[in-house]
# Entry
Amino acid sequence: MAQIETAIGNDIYKAAELLRANELVAIPTETVYGLAGNAFSETAVKQIFHVKQRPASNPLIVHVHHADALNEFVKEIPAEAKLLLDAFTPGPLTFLLPKRNNVPDLVTAGLPDVAIRIPNHKLTLALLKEATLPIAAPSANPYTYISPTSAEHVYKMLHGKIPYILDGGPCTLGLESTIIGFPEGVPTLYRKGAITIEEIEAQIGKVRLATTEKIVAPGMHLKHYSPKTKLILSDDPEQDIYNYRHQRTGLITYNTYSNALATEDQVLLCQHDDFKIAGANLYAAMHLMDSRNYDVIIARKFPETGIGLSINDRLNRAKT
Ligand code: TXA
Ligand code: MG
# Structure
């Protein structure tokens, strides 16, 4: 791929102009940075797959600036989806709904549903409004690598490949959106994310968890979000630090240092006791640890509740 100059800035007019010219822009969201392109442009969508090195069988989320715009792209919105839209929009919830014909098959990888969300980030909402286009955007990382939660992460991974990174600061939530669909009218969770199952069930009652037997969201595939360094998910970090004592080891842990390893080889995800903060810091910790050339990164497993479920999901797919 020919190298191009990658600029970083906060100019939404420049970003909108590039998107209208079917060029790619990295955009901030409350979850992770996205690699954005005009969803209606074959050139732009193909370029997203190319830059990300992502198989064309893995579809893209469409981002719009207001819930009202959903009707333009989906055939119908079930009652539960409306309740969730009221409760969580704009926000980190992606809806899988039957697409209208105007949504290109390239975006949905030929699937009958489109994934669509309204991101909750001031700059990007202003950009979506200014660009007046639906924006297709996967996370702005190379296929299977760690997602970016800052403009610097994007620059490190994609400089020379895209013309502009819209810098909206560090992502406040740091984990991808939760994905929900309604096959045969049954609310079904396809990706654990920044909104917890508990929060969704408080609005609409019991939701089904999609099983991996029938992979609908290819993000359900096992290898994903992975550092280059070997990563293990640990129920007992002290034991694993001991097991790997002859190797260079780093530890990603919750809010207290382990006595079994030098503190400079550890990253705390949180200073207090708040899983949301830990989730927000997870990918930055993984990027940092992956840059340190350890032989192995040990990550402490979280309790299986709330955001802990989403964090474990990512660590489980990141492990090697
Ligand atoms: O928080 C997020 O959702 C971020 C920000 C940038 O919005 N985006 C994101 O996109 O995480 P991506 O492409 O990295 O993950 C989207 C997941 C993928 O696993 C994809 O397979 C699934 O959503 N997906 C997208 N469109 C789909 C469709 N039409 N049917 C089934 N799964 C779909
Ligand atoms: Mg992704």
About this structure: The pocket of magnesium ion (ligand 2) is lined by residues 138-139, 147 (CB under 6 Å). The chain has two domains: 7-209, 230-318.
